[in-house]
Design a protein that fits this description.
This protein has helices at 3-18, 27-52, 57-97, 103-141, 144-150, 155-193, 198-208, 211-237, 242-275. The chain contains 9 helices and no strands. The N and C termini lie far apart (97 Å).
Length: 282
């Protein structure tokens, strides 16, 4: 054996020992990375759509009508009883401590600041989002999405961007609707059943809830619509495995959208509390 071959034989194990070992990426980390990449691609698609003025208005109005139809009635059926329950609980607690005149302040905090945008977001994520995921997932397994790409049509610009804008508009409108219904139901119950004067209820409510709170509720609605629609569209376009895979994608999309909604709600609430402390006085 030559000297060169002997040196090669001796150094081969060293090179093998020095070779780095890479760990496999966990599925959850991979899924988060794919979702972040999808969100970034969607932002680029929104900019491209606006720059080229090729917004799919037909798809937008179809999705707007569909989301409004499937989300409005459940939101109303949830918010009216919620407003009555808030009126009962707040009225009872206020009567026990002798603060009946401040029941409007608590209602304003619960409904305007928290309940209205959250109910709207849960409707979009649970009802409208599941429908979006199922629609896009069925198109994916029927190869319609691949056919659009082959024809040179961007799936994000054609299917995803109109759904995101439709979800934003519907969430904002639902927030205003359920806010009005919740406050109205609580107001009527406390005035008629709890002997609270209408003037004291309205005065304390306006003291503790102003136009800034309404604007923050609408900002929450916009963010809720964005994160919910992006999560649902991402899961729908990555569905695989036939109808069973579409059902799995729907379940995962709803859970993911709920998680994002609660994270955004906590973040916006904390930032708003730091920037604008609660007003009003006792």
């Amino acid at each position: 054996m030559t000297a060169t071959a002997e040196r090669g034989r001796r150094t081969a194990p060293r090179r093998q020992r020095a070779r780095p070992k890479y760990r496999k990426v966990s599925p959850s980390v991979k899924e988060i990375g794919e979702l972040v990449g999808f969100a970034a691609d969607t932002v680029v698609a929104v900019g491209t759509t606006i720059r080229r003025r090729k917004f799919s208005w037909n798809e937008f109005f179809v999705q707007l009508q569909f989301l409004a139809a499937v989300c409005s009635v459940p939101a109303i059926l949830v918010m009216i009883p919620f407003g009555v329950v808030v009126g009962v609980i707040v009225g009872s607690l206020a009567a026990n401590v002798g603060a009946e005149n401040y029941s409007g302040a608590v209602v304003a905090f619960l409904i305007v600041g928290q309940a209205a945008p959250l109910v709207s977001a849960l409707m979009i994520a649970g009802v409208g989002g599941s429908a979006m995921t199922a629609d896009l997932g069925s198109r994916k397994i029927r190869d319609e999405v691949d056919a659009l790409e082959v024809m040179g049509i961007s799936v994000l610009e054609r299917l995803v961007v109109p759904r995101i804008f439709a979800a934003i508009i519907v969430t904002m409108l639902l927030t205003s609707l359920v806010m009005t219904l919740g406050i109205g139901a609580s107001f009527l119950f406390q005035v008629t059943a709890m002997d609270v004067t209408a003037g004291s209820f309205l005065s304390t409510m306006t003291d503790f809830a102003g136009i800034n709170d309404f604007i923050v509720a609408q900002i929450k609605a916009i963010l809720f619509g964005i994160v919910s629609s992006i999560a649902c569209c991402a899961k729908g376009l990555t569905a695989k495995g036939g109808p069973g895979g579409v059902g799995t994608a729907v379940n995962e999309a709803v859970v993911m959208a709920f998680m994002f909604v609660f994270f955004v709600n906590v973040g916006v609430g904390e930032v708003y509390a730091l920037v604008s402390p609660p007003g009003g006085g006792y």
